[in-house]
TrEMBL record:
Domain GGDEF: 108-243
Entry-linked PROSITE patterns: GGDEF
InterPro entries, per database record: Biofilm_reg_signaling, GGDEF_dom, Nucleotide_cyclase, Rev_trsase/Diguanyl_cyclase
Gene3D superfamilies named among the record's database cross-references: 3.30.70.270
Protein name per UniProt: GGDEF domain-containing protein
Natural source organism: Nocardia nova
Coiled coil: none
Cross-referenced SMART domains: GGDEF (SM00267)
Length: 250
């Protein structure tokens, strides 16, 4: 079945033989599941489609789409969505990662960009947690509006930590093309308190790794290593961590 939009590229991005192959967008990628499509209201700049999958990735696809469907916010809370930012939460992100690892070809690469806001604690200390929550909600909105590729999924995994999942095929260039806009989106002032405007900054640890042998927790840990080095390098930067090298970009 041809799909007008590769809206599930983050899940369905390898060639599979189980189930009826589904063509995704102009890249003609196939998946290990049958699928049907019906229109729904989009979230931010996200594709305006609902995909119902049948096969190994079906439950994860339904989980992700519940996180991204704005109408779900008016129903009971989802255990997979962060209620403050309306982005997928850590649990949803880990499930999506594991689904990609289980279905992508071993020669493919997967990536993460792990963003931590610089000195965010000072905002809570000075303005209070309600103001801090407002800032986090705005950061989530900006990330969702900025990371519009269907192969890049932003999530909030806790506190002031956000992660962008880069579906295969992924390389250093894709990490660069994701990390730089993530940092740039923080530069516009955010209103805080009755009169103040804050310009945020952040640090990012990125990782690009082969799908073969990958697991979600290791990818997050490797990205966290890059984040630690970005902080040590003076913040407002990102570091790409790989097993064979680290690279800092300012």
């Amino acid at each position: 079945m041809a799909l007008e939009n590769d809206c599930c590229a983050a899940f369905f991005n390898t060639t599979g033989v189980n189930g009826r192959p589904v063509t995704l967008g102009s890249r003609s990628r196939t998946v290990r599941a049958a699928a049907s499509v019906s229109a729904i209201e989009g979230f931010g700049h996200r594709p305006r489609h609902r995909v119902t999958a049948v096969g190994p990735c079906a439950e994860t696809a339904r989980t992700f789409l519940h996180c991204r469907d704005p109408r779900a916010r008016h129903r009971r809370p989802s255990p997979f969505a962060n209620t403050l930012t309306r982005l997928p939460n850590r649990h949803c992100l880990l499930e999506q990662l594991e689904a990609i690892v289980a279905t992508a070809g071993p020669a493919n690469h997967i990536g993460l960009c792990f963003l931590d806001l610089d000195e965010f604690k000072l905002i809570n200390d000075r303005y209070g947690h309600r103001a801090g929550d407002s800032v986090l909600a705005e950061v989530g909105r900006r990330l969702d509006a900025t990371l519009t590729s269907s192969a890049v999924t932003p999530a909030r995994i806790g506190g002031d930590e956000f992660v962008a999942l880069l579906a295969p095929p992924c390389d250093d260039g894709k990490a660069h093309a994701t990390a730089e806009p993530m940092l740039a989106t923080l530069s516009d002032p955010i209103p805080v308190g009755p009169t103040d405007l804050l310009v945020l900054s952040g640090s990012i640890g990125a990782v690009v790794a082969p799908v073969a042998g990958a697991n979600a927790e290791k990818l997050l840990n490797d990205a966290d290593v890059g984040l630690y080095r970005a902080k040590a390098a003076g913040r407002v930067t990102w570091v790409l961590h790989r097993d064979d090298h680290d690279r800092a970009t300012e």
